[in-house]
Amino acid sequence: MKLRLAIEWFLNPDHLPFIVAQRRGIFEKYGIEFELIEPDEHYDGLSEVLSGNIEFATNEPLHLIEQFDERFLSLGSYFVTQGGVLLKASSHDKLKNGGNITVTTPVSNPTTDTIGFEIIRRFYAREGISVSRDQVAFAPNGFEHLKYLKEGADAAWLYFYNFEGIEAQHEGMEVFYLDAENAGFANFSALDLFVNKTFYRENTGLCDAFQTALREAIRQIRMDPTEAMEDYYAYTGGEATALMEDILMATIACFDPDFASDHERELPILEFFREIGITDLSAERFKTAFLH
């Protein structure tokens, strides 16, 4: 049977397990014909899964809460990194001294802006500094965080360490990484595998085979990173640069070969979002989006 999966944005190293499973015949081994879809918009894959037009989508755990629907089933986070807000060291004292900052972000709306501000607020609170909401302005831009930081933005929201964090190091840019560890929030910088509950119930064996194939691909990636990187370049036609090599190596360390649908792993994310007032979704309803 053909299984279609929509990624969350554009194709990048975070999707390496799908590439490897496709190129090495792992999907074929489990009787799966596979198609990877790059959506036009960030939420398109989730909408298509709910409507039954495609079988799978991958996206951040945030959207399971923000876009919660009783039809969603999360099969777990196959990819987990650190992330949050990337703050230029040269801009650190602006808020400290009562000034304002501009934060570039690929997605600006009341929900994401609230989360971004809360991360910044908590980071400074650990230094005993109070930051007000009107000191932080979010500027909707693309995904080229480092480009916008160089052009004058003070910080970048919705960054992943395995990509923009590595890029900042290559650029020699002095930054503060406002992530779960140093800003005190539940880490949601991850990618979940989503499926429609109805499709899962009617095709449980096939869905289990799909997960098994992904886990096998991740184990192969971890065992032979060099070959996995060659698969990535061959599939994407991308150039093997020193930066991309380091991004790929950092990304490979983020894949979980034992990912599973377990609400306990993601419940702290819900509790964080409930605490800052962006959702009133109950823990009991949230649990229904997982197998365990």
Secondary structure: elements and pairs:
Elements: E1 2-6, H1 16-23, H2 26-29, E2 33-37, H3 44-51, E3 56-59, H4 62-66, E4 72-80, E5 83-88, H5 92-96, E6 101-105, H6 110-125, E7 136-140, H7 145-150, E8 155-160, H8 161-171, E9 175-178, H9 180-183, E10 190-196, H10 197-202, H11 204-223, H12 225-236, H13 242-252, H14 263-275, H15 283-287
Parallel strand pairs: 1-2, 1-3, 6-7, 6-8
Antiparallel strand pairs: 3-10, 4-10, 5-8, 5-9
What does this 3D model show about the protein?
There is one protein chain. This protein has 292 residues and is of the alpha/beta class. It folds into 2 domains: 2-80 and 190-287, 3-Layer(aba) Sandwich (D-Maltodextrin-Binding Protein, domain 2), CATH 3.40.190; 83-183, D-Maltodextrin-Binding Protein, domain 2 (3-Layer(aba) Sandwich), CATH 3.40.190. 46% of the residues lie in helices and 19% in strands. The protein has helices at residues 16-23, 26-29, 44-51, 62-66, 92-96, 110-125, 145-150, 161-171, 180-183, 197-202, 204-223, 225-236, 242-252, 263-275, 283-287; strands at 2-6, 33-37, 56-59, 72-80, 83-88, 101-105, 136-140, 155-160, 175-178, 190-196. The strands form 2 sheets. The chain has a 5-stranded mixed sheet with strand order 2-1-3-10-4. α6 links the parallel β6 (101-105) and β7 (136-140). The two termini are 27 Å apart. The model has no long low-confidence stretch (mean pLDDT 96).
